Amino acid sequence: MKTILVTGGTGYIGSHTAVELQNKGYNVIISDNLSNSSADVIDRIEKITGVRPIFIKADLSKEQEVSVIFDTYHIDGVINFAAFKAVGESVEKPIEYYMNNLQIAMNMFVNMKRKGVKYFVQSSSCTIYGEPDKNPINENCPPKFAVSPYGNTKQMVEDMLHFITRDGLIQAIALRYFNPIGAHPTALIGELPNGVPNNLMPFITQTAAGIRKELIVFGDDYPTPDGTCIRDYIHVVDLAKAHVVAMERCFECRNKINFECFNIGTGNGFSVFDIIKSFEKTTGIKLNYRIGKRREGDVVAIWADTSLAEKELGWKAVLTLDEMTLSAWNWQKTLNKEKIL
Ligand code: UD1
């Protein structure tokens, strides 16, 4: 069976992807610097799948540490999650974000070429589209100027791939995620935000758990049906499976061109109030929230046209919004029980 290097594999999306890869029999090597995750995620992946992935703690922004991994193991494909990802922090520390996120990608490309590793799946984001001119948005819409260095690094890695894959020695797929939420049904892995969460779902679960006093809804005066912003929330397990099918498309040489991009969402737009309602319904908890000011930089509404992923990857999100909010809550209960948060 083929071996896949999952960079950033102890993180939120990486850990769920490692589980799905192992469930399909792939050998998984996880490398992570643990700057934003914990090594016990490896135990949890083993608990879920019955298989312990190989784990290498490494700073992947250092070429030497990456080359050791490529020299030690035979690798068939790379899925690259390793990156700094806090939007606000990236505005404060742009150079650190460019250095880290771009250097990690470059170190992968250099070593893949050196060792003849051909297949690469990149963690990208719908943030590259900015505010859409129309919804649902498809992959042909040109990216808009990034609002943050974080988003810019996602655009830049896509741009690099466009040229790097030209000779065909590396073939790549970028998956442009919409808003991943939820957690594994076992409630053994999930999102573990550092400090006060910026994203909606962990803020909701932490508020319900009493860790935060109240959720502030960032504006209810947007030009949307209920006045709150609209996003395409996708269950992290569906998202993880998209990486498996993307990697398999490469292995089976089904790529149409050397570098392909796919939207990974559900194709449905839900408002902030929709998420709150779903959470209250599935958990039976009344959420403490109030309306606040708009957050700077928020797009009003975005959801995905997922027809390309359906047609080409044969992949479609199947889990519902209620499954997303309930699984996020179950994971929060694990965090409470184990006194992690
Ligand atoms: C954010 C990032 C995006 C990143 C994504 C990862 C920004 C501008 N964008 O997207 O680059 O890829 O996270 O998932 O930060 N909300 C509240 N109250 C809160 C938190 C959020 O009302 O306390 C609202 C926001 O205004 C937004 C929605 O919830 O309408 C979703 O917010 P969030 O989870 O932060 O995701 P995005 O802003 O879409």
Q: What bound compounds does this protein have? A: uridine-diphosphate-N-acetylglucosamine
Shape designation:
globular
Average of per-residue pLDDT values = 97
Number of strands: 13
Q: What is the spatial order of strands in the main beta sheet?
A: 3-2-1-4-5-6-11
- Please mark out the parts with pLDDT under 50 across 5 or more consecutive residues, or reply none: none
Question: Helix share of residues?
Answer: 40-55%
Largest sheet: 7 strands, parallel
Give the DSSP E fraction (strand runs of 2 or more residues): 15-25%
CATH superfamily of the largest domain: NAD(P)-binding Rossmann-like Domain
**Order of SSEs:** EHEHEHEHHEHEEHEEEHEEHEHH
What labels describe this entry?
single chain; 341 residues; alpha/beta; Rossmann fold; UDP-galactose 4-epimerase, domain 1; 2 domains; seven-stranded parallel sheet; two-stranded parallel ribbon; 13 strands; 40% helix; binds uridine-diphosphate-N-acetylglucosamine
